[in-house]
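Whiteboard transcription, Tuesday session. T.W. wrote the structure tokens on the left side:
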């Protein structure tokens, strides 16, 4: 059985099924492994990991610990509760209409961020005049309909990961701030900080930055320097706001003090740093990289909720879920009728009942002619049972969104 235990109860010979770590770039070779010594346990604790999942069939049990199923059930009911109680700002235009413009803005944002980061690698100064119009266009799109831009950001190419992750973090931060009713001027400063938050990675040796595998402990220590390098670069940038600086300086800090570089705790981290740490983890986990298969957004939101016991501010995680929705646009869901459907439009007042496009029959395991179903309509007898992983069904989501 898979069980969840505190790291303080971990013993050598136990088998870790899932290290339950929010950081993809952690220096453990695998997410599951046999605990060989107290040294291993100290190392796990030193990376801020508080709880892990153990496999009791491959190592000793801890009788009183909750099973993974119990934990998942609890998290699911929390998600359902949030879905029933959270409301989002009403969009100004439908997502499908906004996607046309959002695609252009996304392309332009990637091009500009790519240029600015490359210039930084060559030792040139950041010119904010290049970045500010892009931030403004992204903010316009998010205000028209936040789901259009956000749904485009999951697809990343290995060689462009740092640039595309930067655009994603900037965009998700803008959407997050809008859901928090933050004023537009501040939103744009936070968004700019998001686009430039990893600029210090340009000073990390390329063989570490683009290593097609897990980093060693020494490499991870070098990688962590990107926060300091980024702050040094941005502090020299004329016109940069303290808000943008705090996004870059604090995006790896952690609510329980286990983050880096300063190990700040709770409200020692600015609001903007706290938002950035949630968004940074969400985007890294949902994205596919060479050594990490992207996890479905709904699953990652559930993980953020789980980690908000320690790593994140729980209220902010609730607001982030509100800004993204329980079933973000482009997610695959299973309906009670047995059909698999793609979420094509969220309902701002009912996060559990979006508009979906049924595309696959799970019983016959065959595609069906796409059919739109609005789950909020009184005549709709269907409902979402769960999210689904498209690869498990051989479904190419690009065909439908
Ligand atoms: Fe970073």
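and on the right, the sequence the group agreed on:
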């Amino acid at each position: 059985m898979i069980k969840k235990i505190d790291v303080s109860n971990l013993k050598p010979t136990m088998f870790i099924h899932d290290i339950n770590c929010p950081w993809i770039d952690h220096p453990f070779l695998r997410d599951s492994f046999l605990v060989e010594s107290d040294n291993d346990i100290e190392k796990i604790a030193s990376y801020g990991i508080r709880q892990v999942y153990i496999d009791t069939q491959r190592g000793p049990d801890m009788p009183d610990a909750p099973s993974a199923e119990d934990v998942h059930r609890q998290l699911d009911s929390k998600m359902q509760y949030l879905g029933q109680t959270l409301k989002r700002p009403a969009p100004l235009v439908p997502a499908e209409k906004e996607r046309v413009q959002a695609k252009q803005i996304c392309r332009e944002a990637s091009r500009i961020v790519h240029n600015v980061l490359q210039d930084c690698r060559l030792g040139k100064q950041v010119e904010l005049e290049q970045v500010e119009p892009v931030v403004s266009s992204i903010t316009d799109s998010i205000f028209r309909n936040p789901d259009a831009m956000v749904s485009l950001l999951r697809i990343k190419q290995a060689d462009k990961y740092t640039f595309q992750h930067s655009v994603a973090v900037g965009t998700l931060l803008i959407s997050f701030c809008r859901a928090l009713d933050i004023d537009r001027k501040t939103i744009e400063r936070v968004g700019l900080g998001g686009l430039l938050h990893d600029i210090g990675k340009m000073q990390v040796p390329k063989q570490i930055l683009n290593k097609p595998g897990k980093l060693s402990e020494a490499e991870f220590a070098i990688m962590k320097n990107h926060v300091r390098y980024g702050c040094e670069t941005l502090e020299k940038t004329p016109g940069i706001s303290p808000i943008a600086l705090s996004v870059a300086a604090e995006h790896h800090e952690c609510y329980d003090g286990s983050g880096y570089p300063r190990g700040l705790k709770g409200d020692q981290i600015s609001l903007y740093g706290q938002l950035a740490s949630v968004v940074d983890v969400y985007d890294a986990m949902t994205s596919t990289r060479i050594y990490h298969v992207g996890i479905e957004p709904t699953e990652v939101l559930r993980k953020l909720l789980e980690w908000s016991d320690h790593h994140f501010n729980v209220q902010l995680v609730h607001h982030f879920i509100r800004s993204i929705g329980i079933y973000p646009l482009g997610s695959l869901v299973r309906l009670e009728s047995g059909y698999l459907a793609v979420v094509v439009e969220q309902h701002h007042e009912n996060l559990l009942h979006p508009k979906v496009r049924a595309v696959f029959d799970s019983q016959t395991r065959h595609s069906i002619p796409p059919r739109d179903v609005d789950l909020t309509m009184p005549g709709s007898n269907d409902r979402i049972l769960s999210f689904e992983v498209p690869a498990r069904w051989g479904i190419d989501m690009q065909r439908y969104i």
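Someone added at the bottom: The pocket of fe (ii) ion is lined by residues 198, 226, 251-252 (CB under 6 Å).
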